Amino acid sequence: MDVDTSPSPSPLALLLLGRGADPDSERGVECPGDLPPASDPDLVARARAAKAALGERVFVLGHHYQRDEVIQFADVTGDSFKLAQNAAAHPEAPYVVFCGVHFMAESADILTGDHQQVVLPDLAAGCSMADMAAISQVEDAWDVLADAGVAATTVPVTYMNSTAAIKAFTGRHGGTVCTSSNAQRALTWAFEQGEKVLFLPDQHLGRNTAVLQLGLSLDDCVVYDPHRPGGGLTPQQLQDARVILWRGHCSVHGRFSAETVREARERIPGVRILVHPECRHEVVTQADEVGSTEYIIRAVEAAPPGTAWAIGTELNLVQRLAKQHPEQTIVFLDKTVCFCSTMNRIDLPHLVWALENLVEGRVVNRIQVDPDVAHWARVALDRMLALPELGDVD
Ligand code: 13P
Ligand code: SF4
């Protein structure tokens, strides 16, 4: 089988903050109100004061890809799985400020109580991968599977990086959510429920998990392209496949290639290549270790002084690890810089703005999922949270 690693035909362009609307994206684009200027020298003091004034009424979650200026104010930092667990575990805080991206804040809203309100400091913080699967496309794909006679035996598994509507679809059809730290367990569980898996929306995480952790072959996987009639697949291909991978990917992790791995090994003798499972199959198969952002941090923390790493994940995290571990050599696995532009939209001015409004009793940029969608998405999220813990991809 050819491993399809080319970009999806029409990833969405980034819109300028506060300009217009984007009906095709899970993210918003508007940020109402006056933001403090980024040059304000008092921003750190203002964030501290607002947090102190709110006390236990606010709980701030920070994803590992957030900027340092933001992460310093997080009550807990984590990968998507840990943040989902933490969102569910803090019912005492009426306000949950999510420093991450839109799909994570949606999941936090679903997992928190009705008395809690979730705030995303910049509504334009979306995820281009999540935008590669729209609910209407997924419903059409399910019809294609039904026509091929395989829907009844297929279990949908959606990566956390998807809209609440897709998580709800998964819940309604007997499937689960997964993150990069439990994808193996999720797929194992799914194969206990049915014969095939429809894996959304990251083809790379799906393929890497199916082949490297479940022992399936590349030929067991097919790629469903939502931009082609019938997904670009014949009924026979759908019937023969074990895993139907959605044609989505992360543009940040998609930059790493076999060539960047080779260059890093040439440049740094003895280097260990540590990558996120959103990387392409050719990268993951050539890496020394593979895992979620939380796994990457633990791997570095556990390594002896003098270890050299080339890390293939978002740059804020790699730079932070390099700063925190001067006793090791830590470099980014690509010559060009590679921030996640949407994660980076949450900056200190937006955080200060959101917190100061909460101090004044105004909830800005609230993320609120439609109750019916939330109900079914919660079914899928609860299935994920109930999966027995396993180690990361490695
Ligand atoms: P983690 O769950 O590993 O933090 O990954 C989230 C993500 O968006 C990676 O691109
Ligand atoms: Fe989405 Fe990729 Fe950014 Fe993660 S790094 S939030 S998958 S665009």
Q: Show unreliable segments.
A: 1-21
Please report the total strand number as a whole number.
14
Largest sheet: 5 strands, mixed
**SS element count, helices:** 15
Structural class: alpha/beta
Radius of gyration: 21 Å
Oligomer: single chain
Order of helical and strand elements: HEHEHEHEHEHEHEHEHEHEHEHEHEHEH
Mean pLDDT over the full residue set: 92
Order of the strands making up the biggest sheet: 2-1-3-4-14
| Helical coverage, percent range | 25-40%
Q: Which small molecules are bound?
A: 1,3-dihydroxyacetonephosphate, iron/sulfur cluster
**Terminal Cα span:** 24 Å
What is the beta-strand fraction?
A: 5-15%
**Global outline:** globular
Short note summarizing the structure:
This protein is of the alpha/beta class and 394 residues long.
Main features:
394 residues; alpha/beta; Rossmann fold; 5-stranded mixed β-sheet; 5-stranded parallel β-sheet; 15 helices; 14 strands; 38% helix; disordered N terminus; binds 1,3-dihydroxyacetonephosphate; binds iron/sulfur cluster
